[in-house]
Design a protein that fits this description.
With about 325 residues, the chain is an alpha/beta fold. It is built from 8 helices and 25 strands. The chain folds into 2 domains: about 220 residues, Spore Coat Polysaccharide Biosynthesis Protein SpsA, Chain A, CATH 3.90.550; about 80 residues, UDP N-Acetylglucosamine Acyltransferase, domain 1 (3 Solenoid), CATH 2.160.10.10. Helix 3 packs across helix 5. The longest helix is centred in the middle third of the chain and has 13 residues. The N and C termini lie far apart (about 55 Å).
Length: about 325
C-alpha cells in the first residue's frame, strides 16, 4: 500500500514557530509531528510514500530523505494551495493506479490500529467524537454502518463524529474521478476544494465507506493541542521508564520527560511532560508541560505550558532574598 501525506500548509496558528520551519517539522515528544506519522506508517509495513509539499517544502524533502533513506518517496508541489482536495488532485498521477492508498494529514497524530484499517474490505475514514463538529468535516452513518453523508464544516451538524485526517481508499482511480469532478465543476467550500466533497461524490456513485473511531487524535495546528499531544505521547511506557537521574545529578527530573543528546542541565526541576531538544542548556530553571527546541538556552526560567523554538535564549530573574516573619511577596503581579 502507498501512503499519501499532504504537508503543504503554512501553519499560521503555530506562529512564530512556523516562520522558520513547516508545521509538520515542529518538535513533539522526541520527534517531529511528521516523524511520528511516518514511523507509525512504517510500523504498519508501508514503505512507499507520496508527500504533497508547498510552504518550505524543500525542508520537508531534506528531512525525509535524510532521516528515512530506506523509503521509496515521491514529492509533489501544490501551487497554488487551494485545499486538501486540490492537493490530492495535483498528486493524482502518483497513486491513481494503486489498488488502495492510505491518506494521512501531515499535521495530525492519531492513535489507531493501522493494520486493521489496511485489512478492512471497504474504504475507511477515521473519525472522533468532538464537541464542536461545525469546525470539521462530519460523517453521518446509516443503519447498515456505511456512511450516508459527509459534510465539510456544516452550519447545523447532524453528527458529532469529525473526520480526523485518516483515509483508506479502495480503488483510488474512483477518487481521482471524483476529484476531477469537483475541480471541473468548481465545487468549493469556503473558497477551497475539499476532499470531503470528493468523497461524498464517490458515495453518491455507489462507493461503500465505513468509519473507524480512533483512540486519540491531535490536530497539531495550535499550541494547546500540540502540548496535549506532547503530554499524551510522553505518557507511553518508553518515556515513563526513562531514568535521567544519573545522567543529570543535582537536578529533579519528574517523568515523563524526553531529553535530547548533548544537553546541559544544572540545578533545575524538569517535568512532568517536558520534551527537550538536542544541545540545549538549562540552568536554575523549573519547566513543566513544555516543549523546548534544539540549541536553546534557558537561565532562571519558570515555565509551564510553553513552547520554545530552536536556537532561542531566555534569561529570567535571579533573586537573593532574606525574608523575615509574617512576610508576603508576590512576583506574579
Amino acid at each position: 500500500m502507498k501512503a499519501v501525506i499532504p504537508v503543504a500548509g503554512v501553519g499560521s496558528k503555530l506562529r512564530p514557530h512556523t516562520h522558520t520551519q513547516p508545521k509538520s517539522l515542529v518538535p513533539v515528544a522526541d520527534n517531529t509531528i511528521l516523524g511520528h506519522i511516518v514511523e507509525k506508517l512504517i510500523q504498519a509495513g508501508i514503505e512507499d510514500f507520496v508527500f504533497i509539499i508547498g510552504y518550505m517544502g524543500e525542508k520537508i524533502e531534506r528531512y525525509i530523505r535524510t532521516k528515512y533513506p530506506q523509503l521509496k518517496v515521491e514529492f509533489v508541489v501544490q501551487e497554488p494551495r487551494e485545499g486538501l482536495g486540490h492537493a490530492l488532485w495535483v498528486a493524482r498521477d502518483t497513486y491513481k493506479d494503486e489498488d488502495s492508498i492510505l491518506i494521512m494529514l501531515g499535521d495530525a497524530i492519531v492513535d489507531v490500529d493501522l493494520q486493521a484499517i489496511i485489512e478492512a474490505p471497504h474504504s475507511v475514514l477515521g473519525v472522533k467524537k468532538v464537541s464542536k463538529p461545525s469546525l470539521f468535516g462530519v460523517s453521518e452513518v446509516g443503519t447498515d454502518e456505511f456512511i450516508v453523508r459527509l459534510v465539510e464544516k456544516p452550519i447545523i451538524p447532524k453528527s458529532n463524529f469529525a473526520l480526523v485526517g485518516l483515509y483508506k481508499i479502495i480503488q483510488p482511480r474512483k477518487l481521482v474521478e471524483s476529484l476531477d469532478y469537483i475541480i471541473k465543476e468548481d465545487i468549493r467550500t469556503q473558497q477551497e476544494y475539499h476532499l470531503t466533497d470528493a468523497l461524498m461524490h464517490m458515495i453518491r456513485n455507489g462507493e461503500k465507506m465505513t468509519t473507524w473511531a480512533v483512540d486519540h487524535w491531535f490536530d497539531c495546528g495550535k499550541k494547546e493541542t500540540l502540548l496535549e499531544a506532547n503530554a499524551t505521547l510522553l505518557s507511553r511506557p518508553q518515556f515513563r521508564e526513562r531514568d535521567y537521574s544519573q545522567q543529570y545529578p543535582g537536578n529533579i527530573i519528574i517523568p515523563p520527560v524526553s531529553i535530547g543528546d548533548n544537553c546541559t542541565i544544572t540545578n533545575s526541576i524538569i517535568g512532568p511532560n517536558v520534551a527537550i531538544g538536542d544541545n540545549t542548556s538549562i540552568y536554575r530553571s523549573t519547566l513543566s508541560n513544555s516543549i523546548i527546541g534544539t540549541y536553546s538556552e534557558l537561565r532562571y526560567a519558570l515555565m509551564h505550558d510553553s513552547i520554545i523554538g530552536s536556537d532561542a535564549s531566555f534569561k529570567g530573574l535571579s533573586h537573593s532574598l532574606n525574608i523575615g516573619d509574617s512576610t508576603e511577596i508576590n512576583f506574579g503581579q
